[in-house]
Write a structure and sequence with these properties.
- The protein is of the alpha+beta class.
- It folds into two domains: about 5-150, 2-Layer Sandwich (Fructose-1,6-Bisphosphatase, Chain A, domain 1); about 160-260, D-Maltodextrin-Binding Protein, domain 2, CATH 3.40.190.
- Helix content is about 30%, strand content about 30%.
- It is built from seven helices and 16 strands.
- A seven-stranded mixed sheet has the order 3-4-5-6-7-8-9, sandwiched between helices. The chain has a five-stranded mixed sheet with strand order 11-10-12-16-14, with helices on both faces.
- Helix 1 packs antiparallel against helix 2 (about 50-65) and helix 5 runs parallel beside helix 6.
- It starts with a helix and ends in a 14-residue tail after the last helix.
């Protein structure tokens, strides 16, 4: 993996370029102009010109530098060709589009390089806050060049936990209010980065997510000393034929086994279709 530093440098440059494109449309504290919002891909799932421009920039930059790598992105048509590739880019050009549309600085560009199913380099960039999170396999996790690590908390009651805005609005976090200190936040990629940086102790979701939502965050978290898994404790393997998973649990590492036991009898969200 001696080529990881060069790969990470390309990722960082691509993320910053995409961030510049996104910020040309962002309106802090207010909704973006109507012409920026293109359509809804599904229920409460918008896509904007900023998403598409960022996706094009990332695609062109990353594949120009590494043309033999596969490609999996939220805003690109999927191709089975990626399943034959040793290395694959797994990308979300803007995770947290709903927050972007509302003028909230809770979105991020998420880029992961996966080798044989495991992330080996990652970059999460929030251009609205100028936070660039990076990680390489066995190289640690960093925020704007400074090493980061997860929190040291070892007791679950009172732990600080990041929750989804939409899940909270649906009432899915009510059962956890008495046990956890919950903060609502957009973008699961950004949430994982904040847990990796030690600002929060954990985050989890029991609704379906896609690989591009959390692949980069998974490496960041692991390199910072944390853990991430399915609800049943299984590790993730990326670049699957079906990139959707049913749950994501992330913690500072110390709390992970406690979190698994805490959620053991909690059902998956009833208003979401189960994913094999």
């Amino acid at each position: 993996m001696s080529d990881l530093p060069s790969a990470l440098a390309v990722m960082e440059a691509a993320a910053r370029q995409a961030g510049t494109a996104i910020m040309a449309y962002f309106q802090p504290g207010s909704r973006v102009a109507s012409h920026v919002r293109l359509q809804d891909k599904g229920r409460n799932n918008p896509v904007t010109k900023a998403d598409m421009e960022a996706n094009r920039l990332l695609h062109d930059t990353l594949l120009a530098a590494f043309p033999d790598h596969g490609w999996l992105s939220e805003e690109s048509a999927d191709s089975p060709d990626r399943l034959c590739c040793q290395r694959v880019w797994i990308v979300d050009p803007m995770d947290g589009t709903k927050e972007f549309v509302k003028g909230l600085p809770q979105f991020a560009i998420s880029i992961a390089l996966v080798d044989a199913g495991q992330p080996i380099a990652a970059c999460i960039y929030n251009p609205a806050t100028a936070e660039l999170f990076t990680a390489t396999c066995y190289g640690g996790a960093h925020l704007n060049g400074q090493r980061i690590s997860t929190s040291s908390r070892q007791q679950l009651p009172g732990a600080s936990c990041l929750a989804s805005h939409s899940e909270s609005q649906r009432g899915e976090w009510i059962p956890f209010n008495q046990d956890l200190m919950i903060t609502q936040m957009g973008s699961i990629a950004y949430k994982l980065a904040l847990v990796a940086a030690g600002r929060f102790d954990l985050s989890f979701t029991l609704t379906p997510k896609n690989e591009w939502d959390f692949c980069a965050g998974a490496l960041l978290l692991q390199e910072a000393g944390g853990r991430i898994s399915h609800k049943d404790g299984r590790a993730f393997c990326f670049n699957q034929h079906n990139p959707q998973v049913r749950s994501v649990l992330a913690s500072n590492g110390h709390l992970h086994d406690l979190l698994l036991r805490y959620l053991e009898s909690t059902p998956l969200s009833p208003d979401r279709q189960s994913v094999p």
